[in-house]
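Researcher: Structure prediction, please.
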Amino acid sequence: MKKTAAFAAALLVLATPVLSQSIGGEVGIEYNAPLDGDDFGGTVYKLGFEYNFAQPVSIGVTGVGFNPDFIDENGSNVTLHASYHLNDFTSVGLFYAVDSLDGDDLDMIGLEAGTEVYGGIVNGYVGRAKADDETGYAFGADSEYGLANGFSALLEFDAVAADFADVTNFAIGAEYEIQSGPNFYAKLGHYNIDTDEGSFDQTYVTVGVDVAFGPKRGTTFESRSLLEIIPGF
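Model: Predicted structure follows.
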């Protein structure tokens, strides 16, 4: 109830005019569900802000809350971004992210970049993750291509190579944007997890909505989270 109330309050805040032209951000919620009907799914809450304090530099923070269906523990992620905008179409940056679950933290630091090309948007990242004495590397890319009448095609890929597991996740989807309003999206994906104890894979669907605000309609980059790579983890 507390999480739902906080999310509703954030939506009310974003419904008021944003006075500063230097601040942008977004808020969203999505639900992931496996196609085989088991409990390996959950709800994800997203919130992000970005401040352009010295053109062409901006700093941002994005947060994610994970509420899985199959365990009582909730997870979270906070990612700090420092971005340099080469022009109106291309940005590069550094990020530092922390995943938290059941009192345990995992840190990740890395590089990210994004550009608009041929009518679409492409983003990518690479990072080094560390938890206790275990390390791993994560990388991924996502793209969005505008079609017509507010619709866009989505494509995502993420991979993790770590001491404790190897993970891959691939998803395709579609998005519909109401002009100056929320974005509704749906995705179909498949992930695979390989560990010393065996492997596990799952096909899933994701449905969600987000609302962007500010002069650039949202943040330059999204959260970087190993928990988010496995929908519903």
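Model: The chain has one domain: 2-229.
Researcher: Thanks, that helps.
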